[in-house]
Fold OsmC family peroxiredoxin.
Amino acid sequence: MTDRIATTTWTGALPSGSGTVTLESSKAAQFAVSWPARAEAPDGLTSPEELIAAAHSSCYSMQLSAILTQAGTPPERIETNAKVSFGQRGEGFAITGILLTVRASVPGIELTDFNAAAEQAKQICPVSAALTGTEITLDAALI
């Protein structure tokens, strides 16, 4: 088993406060977060939803690559965009859906086989699994 750790330090009340997210395991980055960046315009800051989009797009790309490679059609390139929608739901806020847009160059694959692999990757990618209960839509195409 492998663990990954991120730490957030928050200061102040939600509307006017801010925080810093540090990727502890990799030491790869530190991100500033705020409520306005989450619910309004990013203005140079990030949000939990953008970090989920980053996690989902990278996890999905790796899962699709593994499936295609196992099938004997390794990809030349996969580009995945994850759009995480955040808004009011009921009395609070929630992630209201995720759109994965995938464009891939996969020599020698039939379109039906690619579509099946793309859908399978959406179902079994660990981040997709962690987001069970959230509607995830897939737009996959070969380039």
Q: What stands out?
A: Residues 48-142 form a domain with the GMP Synthetase; Chain A, domain 3 fold (CATH 3.30.300.20). The chain has four helices and six strands. The mean pLDDT is 95.
